[in-house]
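Box 4.2: Ligand-aware structure prediction
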Amino acid sequence: MKGMKKLAAAVAVGAIAGLSGTVFAADSSEPIKIPIKNWSSQIVMAHVIGGIFESMGDKVEYVPVDNQASFEAVRVGDITIVHEVWQSTMQNAYYNAMEKGGLIDAGTHAAETLEEMGVPNWVIEKGLCPGLPKWEALKDCAEAFATPDSGGKGRWLEGPQSWHGDVMPNRVKGLGLDDKWVVKFAGAADALWAELQAAEKEGRGTIIFNWSPNFTDASGFTFIEFPPYFDGCRIADGGSWETTGCGSPKGWLKKGAFWKFPKTHPNAYRAFSQLTFTTPQIGSMAALVDVDKMTHADAAKKWLADNEEIWKPWTVSVLGEGN
Ligand code: TMO
């Protein structure tokens, strides 16, 4: 009798689902594990995506991870997704994990990306380095960028060393700028934004590593034009001292997932694979924290509340509401 009831219920569900043609399995009640890294848009987007999953009835858990280690972590399922894979600095780790097996491609955001050294626009307007944004200008303006810790050279403020290893020291040397410039690593992203404010207050030049999409897209920031990137130009990718002066490539921003995610959480996976953010959307996620000084979690709540018409459709089956 019990079995009959179950069967009848299954037939009824099947019949209803049959109207729209497909039966969707329910998502597992196991939490979806979302990585937390160390730059603002990534953390806010983690909570935005978590909020989207929660709106669909899924459980989520936030897991702090080292950026480079995150690709192995998602390959073996210690985290379920990676949602900001920046081509210029992460594609090797991403494709290596895919080749080993376990990481699947979950689509590409609309935003194009750039991770590069640059200056706030007022540095150019004040004439602190005539000839920018061409990199050759850096040969003749280092003094205006000296700081107490730079030994009389210009300070080239790179992000934390965990982000790109020796790419910048190698670039400075490759371009023959190492007698005029010295690379210093910021302890964290916040130190880059603090430097922008301090330099403006003191009226001295500043050159920092930065990226787009970011909150600085809206406030005026110019990326320096280095020799063009090509595959293998960097020392770490087999390049030489003649080629490692190459700049960063413009690139994609991808998503990835643990291969079992589509099976364990088919509905959340469908939403995740459909979701895509633009440059201004990602910039605004960062701005809520770095300009408006909200917490990452509050920023995500506000972003979700302000942008329902953007993300709600991703939570609904392509077959229409009710699935
Ligand atoms: C990975 N990042 C956007 C900080 O360059």
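In the box above, the bound molecule is trimethylamine oxide. The two ends are 29 Å apart (CA to CA).
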